């Protein structure tokens, strides 16, 4: 069985083609700057030894339909030897960012599902319209394949009301669905399952804190395998300090900016989403650069990292409390997997919570699953590479099998 996973953005399509029988990636790539004169198409054919052959092509891709056809063309190209015909693709698994409180799990797409995803456009105005475009284009390019939606929000639907409801007039929840939803659910779910496998224990008996640190960052508190709280909110702006997003701040700050600086809601939205976080404090959102700057004595980079790690540590403490017992902490995504300094700063001084890490192991971690806790640590700490595309492919397969 072959499954194509696609993640459609407003001007991009990321794809990964899986052979589900062999559980391996056959090809992957991106069509970027769709609609611009010099769109960038990058394609990797994965070789049997795990290495890849890469092709890049800069040529106008006028819209997403043309983009997906471009992807199909290279997948069925005779020289590439990936697949012979697009009909070999049984299903397309779509990443959909916001499923609101309608979708608790992965879903086979039909007209009703599409209109529900449309209904959540106001909650994810940048993402859901693009995801819908991806679905519609895939339906026309692959008329015989099953289309499946995997929601970033679904894993967090087990969060209880006391944790998801904001203390604002209740009607806003009833009428407008204003509440915490949480994101990165596919990643949190994936690494939680990997942690259970690594520890050799059923996920349903484990309490975990999963820490996803990429450009966007979030944490989840998982009790007996179910998510009970997460740091992002109604939108991905809440919670941790991120590359360009502020994370939590006093809700009065935007009023101050309006009243005293004349900023419009649009200006503030842009500032908090694109000009804040690490970038707002020290001028760059690339963690590699921030670390370099700090090492060179840059004070802003140092304070940016202080705020960044302090916020994570604070959430570790609060999730430790609400979980009432912690078995394992997982670090994942670009920063969580690759930056020992960040992990150390988040974990240091937590011995009394039973969280002891091994400084040497922490420095060695990289490529693959790696335990970084000390042998006598009550709480295990593991670095686990996330793989959202694989999780989407596995979820898609499960839905197809269950749909008969
Ligand atoms: P996205 O949310 O876009 O998927 P990633 O998970 O790829 O993001 O994480 C991007 C972040 O990870 C960037 O800040 C980048 O600098 C950082 N990062 C990735 N690899 C490394 C590395 N080897 N060392 C330091 N930082 C890294």
Can you give the helix content as a percent range?
A: 25-40%
Spatial strand order of the main sheet: 5-4-3-2-1-6-8-7
CATH architecture of the largest domain: 2-Layer Sandwich
Could you name the ranges where pLDDT drops below 50 across 5 or more consecutive residues?
none
How many helix segments?
A: 15
What does this structure look like?
The protein has 404 residues and is of the alpha/beta class. Helix content is 38%, strand content 21%. Helix 1 packs across helix 3 and helix 10 crosses helix 11. The two termini are 14 Å apart. 43% of the residues are buried. It contains 15 helices and 14 strands. Adenosine-5'-diphosphate binds next to helix 10 and helix 12.
Q: Which properties best describe this structure?
A:
404 residues; alpha/beta; Nucleotidyltransferase, domain 5; 8-stranded mixed β-sheet; 6-stranded mixed β-sheet; 15 helices; 14 strands; binds adenosine-5'-diphosphate
């Amino acid at each position: 069985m072959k499954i194509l996973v696609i993640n459609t953005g407003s001007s991009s399509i990321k794809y990964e083609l899986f052979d589900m029988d062999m559980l391996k990636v056959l090809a992957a790539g991106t069509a970027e700057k769709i609609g611009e004169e010099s769109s960038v198409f990058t394609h990797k054919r994965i070789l049997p030894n795990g290495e890849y052959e890469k092709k890049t092509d800069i040529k106008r891709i006028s819209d997403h339909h043309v983009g997906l056809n471009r992807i199909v063309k290279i997948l069925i190209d005779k020289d590439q030897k990936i697949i012979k015909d697009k009909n070999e693709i049984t299903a397309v698994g779509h990443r959909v960012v916001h499923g609101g409180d309608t979708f608790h799990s992965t879903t086979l797409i039909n007209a009703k599902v599409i209109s529900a995803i449309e209904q959540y456009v106001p909650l994810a105005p940048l993402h859901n319209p693009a995801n819908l475009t991806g679905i519609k284009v895939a339906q026309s390019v692959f008329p015989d394949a099953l289309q499946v939606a995997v929601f970033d929000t679904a894993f967090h639907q087990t969060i209880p009301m006391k944790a998801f409801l904001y203390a604002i007039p209740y009607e806003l929840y009833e009428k407008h669905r204003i509440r915490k939803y949480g994101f990165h659910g596919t990643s949190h779910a994936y690494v939680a399952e990997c942690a259970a496998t690594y520890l050799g224990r059923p996920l349903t008996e484990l309490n975990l804190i999963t820490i996803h640190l990429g450009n966007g960052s979030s944490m989840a508190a998982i009790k007996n395998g179910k998510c009970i709280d997460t740091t992002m909110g109604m939108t991905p702006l809440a919670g941790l300090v991120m590359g360009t997003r502020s994370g939590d701040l006093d809700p009065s700050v935007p009023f101050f900016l309006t009243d005293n600086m004349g900023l419009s809601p649009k200006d503030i939205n842009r500032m908090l989403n694109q000009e804040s976080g690490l970038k707002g404090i020290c001028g760059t959102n690339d963690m590699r650069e921030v670390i370099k700057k700090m090492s060179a004595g840059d004070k802003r980079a140092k304070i940016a990292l202080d705020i960044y790690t302090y916020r994570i540590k604070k959430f570790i403490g609060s999730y430790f409390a609400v979980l009432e017992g912690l078995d394992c902490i997982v670090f994942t995504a670009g920063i969580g997997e690759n930056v020992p300094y960040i992990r150390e700063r988040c974990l240091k001084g937590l011995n009394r919570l039973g969280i002891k890490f091994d400084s040497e192991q922490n420095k060695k971690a990289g490529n693959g699953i790696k335990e970084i806790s000390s042998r006598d640590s009550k709480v295990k700490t593991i670095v686990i590479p996330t793989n959202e595309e694989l999780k989407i492919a596995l979820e898609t397969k499960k839905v197809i099998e269950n749909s008969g």
